[in-house]
């Protein structure tokens, strides 16, 4: 028995084929290779092997190979759901982070507002104290004037 390789009329590889000897000469088998077969072993790495002048060559054009290589690999539903779940989880995390950052900004604004309110209160207290000092000076002045008029 011997393995040969079946090819189309155009020379494209079809399949391996096992043939039996048609005779034996001195215990050596004699084979008749069918006209649609060759003994030349196809080489690995070809998308569509083609026999040309006794050599295996790539039978597909570069464009067809690129097309075959760029076919999207189908994703099973479970994997797709896991991907979507991961994407949704990331979106939720991003939203929570953004919300926390906005909350921090609001808190910082509230603190700034409280500090400004405290500063305003301190200014009002200072203004009141100056008013009180003015009143005390006016009272003293009136007392001095009253003593002078007596």
Radius of gyration in whole Å, from Cα?
Answer: 49 Å
Order of strands, widest sheet: 2-1-5
| Number of beta strands | 7
Total number of domains: 2
User: Biggest β-sheet: count, sense, barrel?
Assistant: 3 strands, antiparallel
Helix content: 40-55%
The CA-CA distance between the termini, in Å, is: 150 Å
Proportion of strand residues: 15-25%
Number of helical regions: 2
Helical/strand content category: alpha+beta
List segments where confidence is low: pLDDT < 50 over at least 5 consecutive residues.
none
H and E order: EEEEEEEHH
Mean pLDDT: 92
Shape: rod-shaped
Give the key terms.
alpha+beta; 150 residues; rod-shaped; 2 domains; single chain; two-stranded antiparallel sheet
Q: What does the model show?
A:
This protein is an alpha+beta fold and 150 residues long. It has two domains: 2-60, no CATH class; 88-137. It has helices at 62-69, 77-149, and strands at 2-7, 13-19, 23-25, 28-30, 37-38, 49-52, 55-58. The strands form three sheets. It has a three-stranded antiparallel β-sheet, with no helix packed on it. Strands 3-4 form a two-stranded antiparallel ribbon. A two-stranded antiparallel sheet has the order 6-7. A hairpin with a 5-residue loop joins strand 1 and strand 2. The longest helix is centred in the last third of the chain and has 73 residues, at 77-149. The relative contact order is 0.06. The mean pLDDT is 92.
Set down the secondary structure blueprint.
Blueprint (H helix, E strand, L loop, with lengths): L1 E6 L5 E7 L3 E3 L2 E3 L6 E2 L10 E4 L2 E4 L3 H8 L7 H73 L1
Antiparallel strand pairs: 1-2, 1-5, 3-4, 6-7
């Amino acid at each position: 028995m011997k393995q040969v390789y079946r090819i189309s009329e155009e020379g494209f590889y079809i399949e391996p084929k096992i043939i039996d000897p048609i005779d034996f000469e001195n215990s050596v088998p004699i084979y008749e290779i069918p006209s649609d077969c060759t003994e030349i072993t196809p080489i690995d790495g070809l998308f569509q092997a083609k026999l040309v002048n006794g050599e295996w060559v790539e039978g597909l054009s570069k464009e067809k190979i690129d097309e075959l290589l760029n076919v999207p690999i189908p994703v099973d539903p479970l994997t797709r759901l896991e991907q979507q779940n991961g994407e949704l989880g990331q979106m939720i995390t991003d939203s929570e982070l953004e919300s926390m950052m906005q909350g921090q900004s609001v808190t910082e604004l509230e603190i700034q507002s409280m500090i400004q309110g405290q500063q305003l209160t301190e200014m009002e207290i200072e203004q009141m104290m100056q008013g009180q000092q003015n009143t005390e000076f006016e009272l003293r002045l009136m007392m001095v004037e009253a003593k002078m008029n007596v």
